[in-house]
Give the backbone structure.
Amino acid sequence: MFAVATVLTAVTLSLLITRVASTALTITGIPRHVARFQARSAFSGVGFTTTEAEQVVHHPVRRRIIMLLMMLGNAGIITIAGSLIISFARSRSATSVSLRLGLLLAGMVAILWLANSKRFDRYLSAVISRLLRKWTDLEVRDYAGLLLLSGEYGISELQVHEGDWLAGKTLAELSLRREGVVVLGIYRPGHGYIGVPKGPTPVLPNDLLIVYGRSSLLSDLDQRSAGSEGDVQHERAVARQADMAQEKPQS
């Protein structure tokens, strides 16, 4: 009977491990249903190739969680298989085999019922989340994924020089948002960092702008010269952004 108890304990620990891992993945910003699927896939060694899986492997914290799951999953499967072989190999009669099989099935049904209980799930998830936040540092959101940086959008640094189209104007005068560019912050020598700058904030030579937008547009903006030519490029970028905004709902 010891081997049957070992199997049930291993199964219970396996479910608990995947629940802890899925909660940890959720803390890093993955939706709950995706986190559970990826945790169970990694623990079982299935390894589905999906877009969600790419979100995991490209994030350092999530990648460590998945690697640990893979190692524990291999050990758990071996333990369960070995215990089952030992348990039934030692049985000398059909009655003993039936008894052990019945206990095993009853235990598995009880474990699965508990695992699928919504009330128990809410309680267990809340406890695990509270413990993880207290004893670990998992509050690492995937901002690249949230901002769609894997596509045509990105965050870039623009160094402002004397004679640049950006230099000597306020953000309101530049109207970068009309081009689809958002200024997230400004590093200004001697003044530090200006976070979420407003319209009246001037852009000065030697400023370092942290901007978000289409990568191609940010590259053009970085090379844009002052004067009428720069103003024309700005109006063209505004027109392209307006066209894109109109096309989006139709796609």
In short: Strands lie at 153-159, 169-170, 182-188, 192-195, 202-203, 208-214. The chain has two domains: 2-142, 147-250. The two ends are 62 Å apart (CA to CA). The first strand starts at residue 153 and ends at 159.
